[in-house]
Structure formats: structure tokens, C-alpha cells
Amino acid sequence: METQPNNPLHGVKLEQIVTDLEAHYGWEYMGHTINIRCFKDNPTVKSSLKFLRRTPWARTKVENMYLKMLKKNPIKKES
Predict the structure, then answer these.
(1) What is the mean pLDDT of each run of 10 residues along the chain (79 residues)?
(2) How far is CA 3 from the centre of its chain?
(3) Who contacts 18 (Cβ-Cβ below 8 Å, separation ≥6)?
(4) Contacts of 51 (CB under 8 A, 6+ apart)
(5) CA 48 from chain center: how many Å?
(6) Helix-helix angle 45-54:56-72, to 10 degrees
(7) Annotated Gene Ontology MF terms (predicted)?
(8) Alpha-carbon 69 to chain mean position
């Protein structure tokens, strides 16, 4: 497998991104920041993943939100 040291999203699954964002910010903030219904109307990880996998522009916004979160709060990697 090819390594991508400059890509912080490499190896991170979309489910992990959504779960981490929800734990850090909560659905209400996510729905306010990224105006998509799957974060506002009865939000679940499953419904969000379904929508984000089919909607590239929304996935890009969520990935960017995750990168900003990581920049402010780096996750320590276990060695």
C-alpha cells in the first residue's frame, strides 16, 4: 500500500470523520455550520454517511471541517 505522508485524511474512514466531528461539535453545531438536512433533521451517523457518500460537495465540506478540527486539536497517534 502506498503511503501518503502529506495527506492527513489518508486511511481515515468517513464514518470515523463523522463520529469524531459529532463527538467534538455535536449535531446542532454541525447542522448550523454545514447546512445539510442529514445533520439537522433526526441526525444519525448512518443517514449522514449515506448522504455524504452520494454528495461530493457535502463530503468535501465535512472533510474540511474535520481538517480544521484536527488543526486546532491534534489527535495523538499511538506508536
Answers:
(1) 71 94 95 93 94 96 94 67
(2) 21
(3) 45, 48, 49, 52, 62
(4) 36, 37, 38, 58
(5) 10
(6) 120
(7) DNA binding
(8) 9
CA distance 75 to 35: 26
Q: Cell numbers of 16, please?
A: 470515523
Give the domains, in start order, of the chain with CATH numbers. 14-71 (1.10.720.30)
Apex 20 CA angle, 14 and 23, nearest 5: 140
* Residue 12 CB contacts under 8 Å (≥ 6 apart), including other chains: 66
Cα(51)–Cα(77) distance, integer angstroms: 29
Amino acid at 22: E
Residue-level length of the chain:
79
Q: How far is CA 36 from CA 15, 16, 31, 43, 76, in A?
A: 17, 19, 6, 10, 30
